[in-house]
What does this fold into?
Amino acid sequence: MFVVHGTKKFLDRAHSGTPPARDPQPATTILGPWYATVLFWQPQVALFVNEPTRLPPFVPLAPAATVIPRMTQTAAQVFTALGLIEEFTTREVTEMGTHQLTKTANRSVLGTMNDFAYLAEAHRTAKNPTDLRELSLRLAQTPCGPLYSSHISPDREITAYITEQATGDMPCPEQETERANADQTFWHGTGQCRSTRRSAPWTGSG
It folds into this structure.
């Protein structure tokens, strides 16, 4: 199970009659929670951002009732394109088979999401359909302020994150504190800082 923190405009379209959870259950995925919003393109697009790695998959919004299952499929394609190990992708997609919707809770991720929305607008062309998978991979290579004291861009961050989870080579508390302090950095005028929230360690055994 994974948790999707949606903006109001996303929740209004994707809740399927079930109100957002006030106190969602802990995610069982390795990557932890995701954030989601809506881009009012023609046709409309959902932008997802992973909280710890800031990976930004883009998915067609319609039909909104199935946007999260389709996001899971897109995420799997992005994982594969980034060269992440198959064992991780299989496990993560399986755990993403169920989800909970809830409201946003991390201003840093919202700042990152706004930056990606701005950059995506600059990359797309109004006359031609946008290849959303290609756009996801392109923006995954973009330097991201909250990752500047670690691996700089989401594609590098997720690779390092999965390696750390698989080997158990997580930073010691002193390193986490130093990283958290260093992450109080302004970027693109958003003044957002990185979340250091982590999901449970992964042994790599599935």
